[in-house]
């Protein structure tokens, strides 16, 4: 591995370094990550990342060129509502509650995305057959087939039986 020596930039020159690497016509406002990479090739100073972040956040060219915000994978984001009731439903299992007298310990909840109408039922176990039975008897036969189902990633929801119902 080749060791590279870096210049430790004094406080008085840091602003000039930022300007020369960020605002020069040949660099065209690269944004935070690329500006940091370019500076780190030649220079070092304590708090370099903070300096670059502040500089870039106040640069109108960088802000204009910044891509539109996208939600990181796995995080919540808004979902466009459908035009008709029960075209899109959201379904989830709640619990491991204390066992009832008849042996139920879970609640399955299904909500229509447009009207927010919710159907619930107590269940003893989270097996695919129980979930499919709920979907067919309590949702599809009463309100019609759904076009889209938003569900969690539990194994019982991912079963082939549930996928085939949707």
Automatic annotation (TrEMBL):
The name this protein goes by in its record: RNA-directed DNA polymerase
The protein's enzyme class: transferase
E.C. code: 2.7.7.49
SUPFAM superfamilies on file: Ribonuclease H-like (SSF53098)
GO BP terms: DNA integration
Residue span, Integrase catalytic domain: 81-166
Species this protein is from: Trichonephila clavipes
Gene Ontology molecular functions: nucleic acid binding; RNA-directed DNA polymerase activity
